[in-house]
Amino acid sequence: MSAADEGYVEFVEARQATLRRIAYAVCRDDARAEDVLQEALVKLYLAWTRVQGTGREEAYARRIIVNADLDQRRRPWHRRRSGVPIELLDEPARAGASTEDRMQLLAEVRALPPMQRRTVVLRYWLGMSVEETAAELSISTGTVKSHASRGLAALRERLGESVDAG
After folding, report:
1. Domain harbouring 123, CATH code
2. What is the pLDDT of residues 119-130, one digit of tens each?
3. DSSP 99-151
4. How many CB atoms sit inside 10 A of residue 113's CB?
5. One domain, residues 98 and 78
6. Cα 164 from Cα 166, distance rounded (Å)
7. Domain tally for the chain?
8. pLDDT tens, position by position, 74-103
């Protein structure tokens, strides 16, 4: 195995669970998230020699995941939805948030329109800045702010004022 291949394998082993959660958060569908993740990992492997060592490997993988989800949504056979995967629930809960509260929040995030959902996930779940989110989604910073604001407003309305923007 070449050094580049070893670097790729190490990266995937270290980040696969996180990338799977990102794919699920973007896709809202466990089976499609797996497909999108596999497609992203193949594309990442093909670009690995260009990406490796830049410090942007995970950002590149996230971008591939978002683009792959958009590509799959454009396909005519896309119409399926499923429940919450167990991998998404393996992160420690925020202090004071019960499992039921987290499940309700996840359900409401999944119900957001696609761009609001992607923006909320990138901004508040992954903690990306407005500029990073805009670059990731190939939209303007104003559009990020608009989608984030609308998404949070919808979550607050559905869940009550107890939803924290961070």
Report:
1. 1.10.10.10
2. 988 888 888 889
3. HHHHHHHHHHHHHS-HHHHHHHIIIIIS---HHHHHHHHT--HHHHHHHHHHH
4. 12
5. no
6. 5
7. 2
8. 765 544 433 444 344 334 444 556 777 777
